[in-house]
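Question (not urgent): is this output format expected?
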Amino acid sequence: MSRLTRISSLTLAMVLPVMSVLLAGTAAGAEIRLLENVTVEPGIVRLGDVAELYAAPVAVTDRLAQIELFPAPTRRRGKVVRAREILDLLSAQGLNFLEHRVLGATHVTIVPAKKEVPKAEVVKPEPVRLTQQQIEAAQERVAQAVVQFVEHELVESAEAALADPQSEADYGPWKAEVRLSHAQAVAIIQADERFTISGGQAPFMGRQRFEIAAVTPDNTVDRLSVDVQLDRPRLVVVALADLPRGTTIVASDVRLEEVSNSRSVAAAATSLAEVVGKETTTSLRAGKPVASRQLREPLLVKRGELVRVVAINGGVVIRTTALAKNDGSLNQLIPVETVPDPDERTRREAKVYHARVSGYQEVEVYAGSVARR
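Got this back:
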């Protein structure tokens, strides 16, 4: 055997035992591959949280994975740990790096896991379905509230007197017509009496918009915009039956009724006292307002009738007769003519003068008022 052959055999005999020892250690070791980004739960960060472990028996990798490193970060942005720091921590706990190999990232970014906040189960209320009767009840409730609001505003506001010169006695109660959507009706019913009214504009006649603040079952406030048709009928005198011209009206011929405020009733009488005892100058139709211009005081003197004339001159009263030239009512001024003297010897020319009707077939005249036609 040559010298070279003897040296090679000797070297191989020395190396094989060392390699067998090294291979025996590596076979039980693990490959620790550090991760670049990890998310951890609150508590302690372990090696298994920041690295993947390969090529070792399960018992070894499980043991390595449980090695504690440091507390988990609590800040939302986390923390960055260098691989060198992790190796130092492992070394401090007795980890033999001749048995295990460390690979992977040079820095590990660790962020805390987001807490899963359990969502409260939202129970949606069953949709409320109202009957037509319930909707109408809600509309009536709003109508009453609007009328109360308007009446209060008119009492408090100085504009009320300027806006409507008519006496309060000339009018009937307010009428409010309200139309609510289904959702608005639900809000009103759920609010019960807990709602307030605002809006509108004096004198509050016709179509008006009001704002309603209704308290909901969960004590929040729903704000509703509602259009309301407001009307305040006037109380006027209406004929109960057809009345021909020249009729003297008695109490049973007429009554007060509510009539929509319009031009057609602007001149209508507004109290029974205005018409009872008066005489119609035109025919009146049943159910129609009676206008003051359609009436006059009853005729006490008729044209062509002889009337008593009471002439007053200071404390002296002289009575005579005259011929009425026109019809006349109480206190009306009418022309009268002197009656010719039947005695031709004392007969004078007839004179026409004006006298005031003072009673049935009677007129008054004061001295100095006689005038020739």
